[in-house]
Design a protein that fits this description.
Layout: E1 29-31, E2 37-39, E3 42-43, H1 44-51, E4 55-59, H2 60-80, E5 85-90, H3 97-105, E6 109-112, H4 115-123, E7 131-133, H5 140-149, E8 153-156, H6 159-171, E9 176-183, E10 186-189, E11 192-195, E12 205-206, H7 210-218, E13 223-229, H8 240-257, E14 264-266, H9 284-302, E15 308-311, H10 315-318, E16 322-337, E17 344-352, H11 361-365, E18 372-373, E19 382-388, E20 397-405, E21 413-417, E22 437-442, E23 445-450, H12 455-460
Parallel strand pairs: 4-22, 5-6, 5-15, 6-7, 7-8, 8-9, 9-12, 9-13, 13-14, 14-15, 17-19
Antiparallel strand pairs: 1-2, 2-3, 4-16, 10-11, 16-17, 16-21, 18-21, 19-20, 22-23
Helix pairs in contact: 2-9, 5-6, 8-9
The protein binds pyridoxal-5'-phosphate.
Domain Orn/DAP/Arg decarboxylase 2 N-terminal: 77-318
Catalytic activity: meso-2,6-diaminopimelate + H(+) = L-lysine + CO2
Binding site for pyridoxal 5'-phosphate: 270, 312-315, 422
């Protein structure tokens, strides 16, 4: 059967619209004998019945394994080239107290970029020395709290911050380790990277000005310069952009060695994951191997020691471990024009009980996702659908295009995979919808990581509410 006229070119009609592509779904996801989706042995229907929908479900073993794999791979590959690596989990992807502990248990450090994220990591009992703080506009109080807590590293993002961090270090009688974020002119997004002399964005110090700022850092006795930092973007599928950024940073790195130690080089995060079956992500151990080769090659070319390399993955650790469960509420066939041919085709809108409040990525940057009926399997023909949310915006789309069994109906449970990163952390209260709960599943059991927000939670903050 030919493709639906409204299907995007990358999406082909599947042989089986029940199949769970192993590159997209968490490792603990499968269909049980009855055909229902289960994650780590817990049936989707049981999760929905106990915790309600929409519900974020995190496959704990998958998340912990990915964290450990990336740390072990970088340890092994950088040992191979005579150096070492430090892996920071980028907390902004998804952070809760328990998830912070999973990351620390797996031997990772944690990156935070606000006082709130710092508070979560500290509440998890993290040794502050294992935390890093970045951000282009840290408040004075955020800097003070971080330095006072004994944070391991602060990524300085502008000239003005040098004196701010030095003053906080002075107040707390500490020597604060710092990195300097560089705007390398390399920007990567998905399958392409752009390399310019000067990139138009808010983060970091231009490469050309960096030596001067490092000299300023070194002039402060209570700042210790750890090295340069670069983060070139997110959801990157190739290592070319990292290689180009590393090459650019390395010339500066070598120049800085003339005036003092530069023990580390931080290449940021941004490793891509598969959101749909057509995305092909690099395996974590392959990323580590390429990074070690890139950095060791650059060091050898310039005759300097291989620095300790720090990386900051978020999405690639927690993204594939998360799945969102929704319940289908309404279904509508909408006749729409196809191009300007005068022809029409029917698009089936399947609306679920969440949307841009729990996953804003499709509305924010056109991100694609996939979906499956979770509560059952079906032998019905695949039908092209668009999964929409319940919010008052026509751009409130969860999955732009997907083939689901044509008998999808109200009351069906729907699962959207690869929602572990940047979904809960970007969730919001649009239309006074409480943010969804997050549960972890492992070995056939589930427990709450973050409870669902209630209407009471939302009303409690409204000063107009009458007190009894
Ligand atoms: C967002 C961010 C990361 C993590 O990016 P992922 O795409 O989740 O790996 C790492 N470092 C910095 C500085 C960031 O801003």
């Amino acid at each position: 059967m030919s493709a639906h006229p409204l299907a995007p070119s990358w999406l082909s009609r599947p042989d089986d619209a029940n199949a769970l592509a192993p590159t997209v779904w968490s490792t603990g996801s499968s269909r049980s004998a009855s055909g229902e989706l289960q994650i780590a042995g817990v049936p989707a229907s049981a999760l929905a019945a106990e915790y309600g929908t929409p519900l974020y479900v995190v496959d704990e073993t998958d998340a912990r394994t990915r964290a450990r794999t990336i740390r072990e791979s970088f340890d092994r590959e950088f040992a191979r080239v005579g150096s070492a690596a430090k892996v920071y989990y980028a907390g902004k992807a998804f952070l809760s107290i328990e998830v912070a502990r999973w990351m620390l248990d797996a031997g990772l450090n944690i990156d935070v970029c606000t006082g709130g994220e710092l508070a979560v990591a500290l509440a998890a009992g993290a040794d502050p020395a294992r935390l890093g703080l970045h951000g282009n506009n840290k408040s004075l109080s955020e800097i003070d709290r971080a330095v006072g807590a004994g944070i391991g590293a602060i990524v300085i993002d502008s000239v003005i911050e040098v004196a701010r961090v030095a003053a906080a270090a002075e107040r707390h009688g500490r020597v604060q380790r710092v990195r300097l974020r560089i705007n390398s002119g390399v920007h990567a997004s998905t399958h392409e990277y752009l390399a310019t002399a000067r990139e138009d964005q808010k983060f970091g110090i231009p490469l050309a000005d960096a030596a001067e700022v490092v000299a300023l850092i070194r002039s402060h006795a209570n700042l210790e310069f750890l090295g340069l930092h670069s983060h070139i973007g997110s959801q990157i599928f190739e290592s070319d952009g990292f290689a180009e950024a590393a090459r650019r940073l390395f010339d500066l790195h070598v120049a800085l060695l003339a005036d003092g130690p530069v023990p580390e080089l931080n290449l940021g995060g941004g490793f891509g994951i598969a959101y749909t079956s057509v995305d092909v992500a690099l395996p974590l151990d392959e990323i580590a191997r390429r990074f070690a080769d890139i950095v060791a090659g650059a060091a050898a070319e310039r005759g300097v020691p291989v620095p300790v390399v720090a990386i900051e993955p978020g999405r690639s650790i927690i993204g594939p471990a998360g799945t969102t469960l929704y319940e289908v509420g309404t279904i509508k066939d909408v006749e729409v024009s196809v191009g300007d041919t005068g022809e029409t085709a029917v698009r089936r809108y399947v609306s679920v009980d969440g949307g841009m409040s729990d996953n804003i990525r499709p509305a924010l940057y056109g991100a694609d996702y996939s979906a499956r009926i979770a509560g059952r399997r079906s032998d019905a023909e695949p039908a092209l659908v668009r999964v929409a949310g319940k919010h008052c915006e026509s751009g409130d789309i969860v999955v732009r295009a997907e083939y689901l069994p044509a008998d999808v109906h109200p009351g069906d449970l729907l699962a959207v995979p690869a929602t572990g990163a940047y979904c809960w952390s970007l969730s919001n209260n649009y239309n006074y919808v409480g943010r969804a709960a997050v549960v972890a599943v492992r070995d056939g059991a589930a427990h709450v990581l973050i409870r669902r927000e209630t209407e009471d939670d939302l009303l409690r903050r409204d000063a107009g509410q009458e007190t009894p």
